[in-house]
Amino acid sequence: MKPYAEIKLKVSEIHILYVALYGNPKGEPVLILHGGAGHSISNNKDMLNYHDVNKYRIIAFDQRGCGKSLPNKELRENTTWNTINDIDFIRRELNINKFHVFGGSWGSTLALIYAITYPANIKSLVLRGIFLAKTKDIEFLLKNDIDKYISKKNLYHPLNFLNSQIDNKEFLIELSSDLDKRQSAKFITKPHPNNDVIVEEMTIMSHFLYNKCFLEDNWILNNVEKLNKINVPIFIIHGELDNICDINQAEDLSEKLPNAKFLKIKNAGHDAKDVKKELIDATNSII
């Protein structure tokens, strides 16, 4: 799929974001939030395959330091809250009043934080592979893959070890491969063929995880009930076999949002392709 427009958007003295627009320029605006942190739309166009291009105006961007955004792999001025501000800057630059928001994994984290912070700007939320970014969620994501690298005295400090290896390309590539193997319950997830891209992605991810995603622990669940007041469609879609983001995160979120539609998908893991039908059904049902 080719964009009908591409924009370079300066959001700070350091960062310039790559923004791409797809689908129908007059369609319903939907913002796509990629995962990671550290991944990008530029390197994962699959994120664009869940909306009807005749109905939706699809807005996608590479987050700070990611993909085609510049400078690449930049960690300065690169926090969760910078990204939340960027999302609203993009909305205003495109003269959008409200938009639908679609995010999986880390993208679901950002979607929830943005909706909590700017509830009046939301038309719907479609969330997949929920990641609430609590300390125990980060540990679940990392611990099994990092244990084999660290000595017993560091066993309970995987984030410290991760941060110590942020410049170790071989480690980052191997960790990425380990995470890829846990992505899907249905498919073999192939690693990105370019090791430079893998290192870029994992550098950003390590930065965010070491800093606990720049959130107070349990921040999302402590604030998410605000979304019960905005009366918009919310979908929570999670594979029962997700080995990246434990399904208890989706269950906890669903308890806080009783009006949301919660879909537990059997024989599905973390990969969006595992729940492709449910994602498409959700986006088609909204408009």
Automatic annotation (TrEMBL):
It catalyses: Release of N-terminal proline from a peptide. One of its GO terms (cellular component) is cytoplasm. Residues 29-274 form the AB hydrolase-1 domain. One of its GO terms (molecular function) is aminopeptidase activity. Keywords: Aminopeptidase, Cytoplasm, Hydrolase, Protease. It holds the Pfam family Abhydrolase_1. This is prolyl aminopeptidase.
